Amino acid sequence: MRVAVVGAGYVGLVSGVCLAAKGHDVTCVDINKSIVDRLNQGVTPIFEKNLPELLQEVIKAEKFRATVSLEHALRDASLVIIAVGTPSENGVIDLTYVCNVARQIGEYIKKNNCFLTVVVKSTVIPGTTDTVVRQELERASSKKLGEFGLGMNPEFLREGEAIEDFMYPDRVVMGYETPETLQLLEELYEPWNVDKVRVNSRTAELIKYANNTLLATQISAVNEIANLAATLGGIDTMHVVSGVHLDKRWNPIIGTNRLNPQILKYLVPGCGFGGSCFPKDVQALRSQGVGLGIPMRMLSAVLEVNEAQPQQVVNILSHHLNDLVDVKVLVLGLAFKPGTDDVRESASLEIVRSLLCAGAQVSVHDPIAAENFAHALGATAVSIEFVDDWRTSLSAVGVVVLATCWPEYAEISKLDITKKVIFDARRMLQPEDVLPARYLTIGRRVDSLGVQENNFSDLPNMV
Ligand code: UGA
Question: Fewer CB within 10 Å, N or C, the chain?
Fold first, then answer.
């Protein structure tokens, strides 16, 4: 099928390349000429595992190309996918880009008097496709729904695993406003032999938000329990969650084995969720609910817990060290999670700002996200030192904060960490692995009972 994908950002590009890899003929449109030029040379503008190889493959097979011209991309296309950004404006979704694209597609339909099916892939609040997008299309094309197709097909791509998630999805959600649209979506996803959910567009939109907000809720719930456990003292929340993990409703038993589902990875105490999706999506859904007169107390609480969580790192460090003034702290990990150079809403931003406020001397490291981090910090970036070799820098600091669980940081246990304070904000280490150091973390405080902090030696291996 000939497909046009509008927006060569993270969602549009991954979707376009993967659809091309499955045999569709894809043209990606972006207003940024330098991105388009780079794509046509097989160079990806974003960091995503396996994307460069797949991009080069589909370009070679002449299944994929990029252009700045929407008109050029729509020529002969049966389906156009809208995958432009939906930024957050004070917690409210900004649909400007989606609307602009819908209007331009409508104008193209009018000018060429053709039939096109438009599918929204951008994450938009429930009711957007069948009202806002439909109206834009109808106005600009002077046609009614049915004279063009319309649907909504959300993505469930994790950054760093996006190719894997697109190629081997858990399910494909096909929201449609006309039977012909469903037919086309069936053809588009024919190569994928997975569960397919056929619903109207607003249901598809809410499936996407419900998915992310439930995961975010789980993270904030476990973090709140962790904060309580730490205040009580004498408890390690990892023991608590490992006890919870054994409930077969979280972790089913098949024969004599545990299934260890991925959901358990979202049941680990830490310094909070970040990224371009969870915070923005929870805020957008809350705003929509509040606008409709629903208090949305639950989602407000999820955000409140999460916003306060990075500060826990500095609170706990201040409590144990009395004072952070002039204390040398090395923050390891700046991306919002490993496997990406994305620092949007990264907990590390807040951790670094709070450490500076507390008077600490801060150095930072990330294998790939340092540049984006400096940019996101703005003027504050001059107050911190960016280090290339964290292993060497270790000797010069008294405190290390593990803020993103890049696998290489686990090596810290093999280095000289005598008398250093290691704050494991992602629970990536076993306390007994760093015995020469003082181990601090979220959800674990034993000093109030006079017990040594490293005395919890029997932590089970977590997922
Ligand atoms: C998330 C969803 O997992 C995807 O299914 C969805 O498609 C995507 O958003 C999106 O809407 O586009 P992503 O933002 O890439 O994907 O990141 P995740 O791997 O889900 O992690 C999100 C955040 O939660 C990270 O900051 C991570 O560190 C944090 N997290 C995760 C915790 O704080 N605690 C945990 O126990 C687990």
Answer: N
